[in-house]
Amino acid sequence: MNGVELRNVTKAYAGLTVMENINLQIADGDFLVLLGPSGCGKSTLLNMIAGLEPTTGGSIHINGRDVTGLEPDERDIAMVFQSYALYPTMSVRRNIGFGLKMRGMAKGEIEKRVAEVGELLQITPLLDRKPSQLSGGQQQRVAIGRALVREPSVFLFDEPLSNLDAKLRADMRIELKRLHERLGRTIVYVTHDQIEAMTLATKVVVLDKGSIQQVDTPENVYRRPANRFVASFVGAPTMNFIDGKLTHDGDDIVFDSGSGCLPLINVPAEIRDLIGRPMTLGARPEHMVFDDAGISSRVLLAEPTGPDQYVRLAVAGSELTARSGPEQIFKSGSDARILVDGARMTLFDPQSGQALLGA
């Protein structure tokens, strides 16, 4: 297959296995983001794809070719690092073209490619400057240009925006998105930033402790988490979790935490098979609904964010966060009534953490 495929990839250091039997297919043209907390193995996985770290077991295939034992420059990939690694004494033009020169490419072809990349990244006026004369965002464009000029089939990015301030990160996300749409090449991108993952990816791989937790579209990772780890890691504020069980309240189905019963609306029919079973209810702040039919709760704190506000509540023996529009006024210590949109909640097994029912 075209794209990238990992088959039973294992990595061990000094006999300690940190990743085991990783299987992953990255389709040609995908923008796949490896997402997870620090130390989860995402950079290790990227470095094995790049050939910067050897695999302990398994194989890596790029465009149908087994590259497991090949050097990085034999894999038809280009990598952009967190540090820009630009040569300080060289101009932007020479930095971008240096790799091609080392490969023995003709001067005319190098100049042509550098000019094309300069135009694509809108850095043509900067080509004769030195790196010290560039902003952080401009240096990042040069680092990306150095990868683009090689015309590889796969681009690898290792947290490339982490050294930029918030405004530049937002700008560069837009640039990377446009670049992918124009080139249509396969991109494998490492980040711990959820916003980057959600805005850039066509597919997200969530990793934890060296294991793949979920591979899916950004929307499904957010709306249909495979387990409690994914649900808690993706999203800010994090998903609310309440332990208890589903039970009947007359004709209605409610969630009984043992300290109170949380009303549910829009309850899916398949939920009835889970009534009485111990479980964990997961509901994101926007899935909590302020309604007079809800359970009484005490407002602990309201945090305005501009277009919305997040309200921290003490309810049914738990502290939960609900999202509301800015027009409602919540005072600490006041009463608010809350319920859960059952069509959008996720139910988890309390032991394994695996999703039983998702939105």
TrEMBL record:
SMART domains: AAA (SM00382)
GO function term, MF aspect, one: ABC-type transporter activity
Keyword Transcription part of the UniProt annotation: no
Alphabetical list of PROSITE patterns matching this protein: ABC_TRANSPORTER_1, ABC_TRANSPORTER_2
Pfam families listed in its UniProt record: ABC_tran (PF00005), OB_MalK (PF17912)
Annotated SUPFAM superfamilies: MOP-like, P-loop containing nucleoside triphosphate hydrolases
Residue intervals of the ABC transporter domain: 4-234
PANTHER family assigned to the protein according to its UniProt record, in alphabetical order: ABC TRANSPORTER ATP-BINDING PROTEIN (PTHR43875:SF14), MALTODEXTRIN IMPORT ATP-BINDING PROTEIN MSMX (PTHR43875)
Family: Belongs to the ABC transporter superfamily.
Name the UniProt record assigns to this protein: sn-glycerol-3-phosphate ABC transporter ATP-binding protein UgpC
Annotated organism of origin: Thalassospira povalilytica
Native organism taxonomy: Bacteria, Pseudomonadati, Pseudomonadota, Alphaproteobacteria, Rhodospirillales
Gene: ugpC
